[in-house]
């Protein structure tokens, strides 16, 4: 005589998080956020010795299309020798292709203020630990004078935004 085999009924899976899952998330998520912040210059500014620090004492002018050795292109970009340098962490209004007249005017003011700030004396250019160049081949640098960020000064004066990965409209 054949006996019936016992087949347990399957319980539906529970999507309620288990205690061990919550503990793991409480450990892993903050660690990932901290790591991301340390590696992303847009979230946390550079701290400590990042790379080679370069002291700049050049006299800057406004770029006129010629081969100016040290000139300001716009409110967040300048040329120094054969390098084009963009200030890390800020976005200034465009001068070349503004979207509205207000952006063009603010872009001219921002470039004039950057020119003024660069010519106030020597400053330090510090490369970020991971992001040395942007997608356009410009060198990404933090500019500091006496420990104060030149980019932060432009943001405080309303002549630049903090760059968070995408442009914010100036119009």
Automatic annotation (TrEMBL):
Q: Where is the signal peptide?
A: none
Q: Which InterPro entries match?
A: SNase_OB-fold_sf, Staphylococal_nuclease_OB-fold
Residues in TNase-like domain copies: 72-160
Tell me the domain of life: Bacteria
Cross-referenced PROSITE patterns, in alphabetical order?
TNASE_3 (PS50830)
Q: Which Gene3D superfamilies match?
A: 2.40.50.90
Pfam families noted in UniProt: SNase (PF00565)
Name it.
Thermonuclease family protein
**Source organism (scientific name):** Sphingomonas caseinilyticus
């Amino acid at each position: 005589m054949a006996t019936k085999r016992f087949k347990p009924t399957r319980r539906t899976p529970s999507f309620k998080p288990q205690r061990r899952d919550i503990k793991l998330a409480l450990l892993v998520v903050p660690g990932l956020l901290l790591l991301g912040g340390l590696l992303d210059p847009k979230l946390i500014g550079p701290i400590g010795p990042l790379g080679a620090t370069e002291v700049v004492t050049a006299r800057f002018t406004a770029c006129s299309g010629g081969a100016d050795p040290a000139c300001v292109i716009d409110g967040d970009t300048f040329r120094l020798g054969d390098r084009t340098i963009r200030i890390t962490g800020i976005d200034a209004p465009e001068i070349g292709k503004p979207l509205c007249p207000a952006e063009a005017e603010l872009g001219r003011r921002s470039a004039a203020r950057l020119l003024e700030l660069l010519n106030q004396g020597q400053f330090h250019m510090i490369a970020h630990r991971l992001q040395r160049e942007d997608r356009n081949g410009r060198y990404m640098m933090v500019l500091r004078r006496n420990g104060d960020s030149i980019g932060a000064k432009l943001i405080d004066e309303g002549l630049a935004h903090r760059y968070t990965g995408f442009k914010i409209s100036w119009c």
